[in-house]
Every structure is written in structure tokens, then in C-alpha cells.
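Q: Can someone sanity-check these two? First one:
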Amino acid sequence: MPIKIFTTGGTIDKTYFDQKSSYHVGEPQASGVLERANVVVGYEVVSLMKKDSLDLDDSDREVIRNAIVSAPEDRIIVTHGTDTMIITAEYLQQTPNKTIVLTGSMYPAQYRDSDAVFNLGGAMIGVQVLDPGVYIAMNGRIFDPLAAVKNVPLNRFEERSP
């Protein structure tokens, strides 16, 4: 069961840029994370863009959707920034016959204490066992994006209150 992983940027791929004392989106980190974790499931990582999710718009979401639809694989992971992950997941709702799991991290994957490894691992498991549909894998849970919210003060995803 090969898995296609599309990277879009976000905090998971951010690196610290000393000269500006700021962060910028760097090279995709998914391959390195999965190699260090000794993942033996077949996967391919393809970079679609290197953007902070606050800079994504619907034309970027259409690029993501088209890549998913065009992929021969029916198991898809999208690494994405957490600020607009839910918006993109909602945008992808009408993508038929694919299991799509979006994931990311609150801290760059290059940080020793990053949540990136755990979240990407959760997405890898989720994409293999979930039915076709669109999901978010964050904070040790699989969320329905239509019922999820990012709790910014607590730096985590939660179920949306009714």
C-alpha cells in the first residue's frame, strides 16, 4: 500500500535563519523524519510548495487538490501549517476515493522536542487504516476537520464545541 506524502511548508519545515533572527520555511522534513523513525511502509514525498499556511490561498489549495486527484495512490498525507490546516481539509472534502490525512507540527521538525515525529507517525498509521475521507492527525488524535478547531492559547487541536 504505497503512500504519497505531499509537503506544503508550514512550521514542520521551518528553520531558524540567524541573520534575520527569524524563521523561514525550508526544505521538506518528512523524508528525514520518516527515515530516522525507520518507517518501512512504502512512501514517496513530493514537495508542492514551501509556504507558511497563513500565505496559502484557494489557488494553492487547488494545486494540492489537483496533485491528490492526479496521484495514482489512494492513501495521501499532506504536511501543512497548522494555522489554516482546517481550511485546506474542508477544501479537500469533495475529493473522492482517497484517504487524505493532513498533519503538521507546532514546532519545527528540526527541534529535538518537536511534535513533528509524533504527528507524522500518527498520520502514517491513520492513512493506512482509515476509510476514504479527509482527516487531521494532530496531538495524538484523528480529527474530523469539520468538527475540529485549533486552540491557539493551548497550542493544540480539539473538537469544536457544539
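And here is the second, same format, sequence then C-alpha cells:
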Amino acid sequence: MKKSYYAAHVYMILGVISGLYYREFTKAHHFDGETQLAVIHTHLLALGMLGFLIVLALDKQFHLSGSKLFTYFFWFYNAGIAITVGMMFVHGTETVLGSKVPEAVPLTAGLGHTLLTVGLILLFVLLGKRLNESATTEPTESEPAKTTA
């Protein structure tokens, strides 16, 4: 569970720093147009920080982190975020500088999105397994639930 907490914390810090970078970098270059730098902080905060806070809550409830599937999810998802946001950073910086964006940037960003998708599929497979396991251990209607006084 601590991996999810630490990941959320790191993404919070990176999200705040990327927002600062966007504001100061565009201001320093007197840039008024649209750039992908404007949405890096929201990607880091939503996909990274909030995503891992949700995973942390799910892990607390369903004990996800003890399995290999969780480890695979964790690394695919983080690699996907890193590659996607990294390419957004390159694309946005090149746009502000007025440089031509290399053709490899959108292709590499697509790879990042693919890794994110694989990570999410792994998370849902693991969550589905844990839900099925908990459904078989819960009392049925004919069996009253045990209560403690």
C-alpha cells in the first residue's frame, strides 16, 4: 500500500512543479498561444495523484498490492504516465520555443497511452478477481451475518 501512497505523493509534487514550469516558462518567452504544457499538471494530478489515491483506497479494501498483477499494473501504469507526460513536456516546450516538434514525439506519446491502457486493464482484472474472492466469502441470504457484541 505504501507504494501507492508514495506514488500519489510524488505525482502531487510533480503536478505542482509542472504548473509552475508552464506559467514561468511561457511568461519568460512571452508566449500566448496554446501549448501542451498547460495540461501537464492536470494529467499528473488526475492520472497520477488522484489515480493512486483511488488505488490506495481500493487496496485497503481489497488487498490488491500483495499480488504480481498489482506489481505489473504499478509499473505499466507509471511507465505510461512518465512517457505520456514526458512527450507532452517535449511537445509543449518545443511549441513555446517555436521549434518544430519531432515526428517521434506523438508516436512515443502513443506508446505511453498504450502502457497506461495495459496498466488499467491489469488493475481491472485484479480488482475483478478480488471482488469474486470476496463474494464467495460473504454470507449468503440463508446464512445470517455474524455480529459481534
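A (reply): Looked at the second one. The CA atoms of residues 21 and 97 lie 14 Å apart. Residues 2-127 form one domain.
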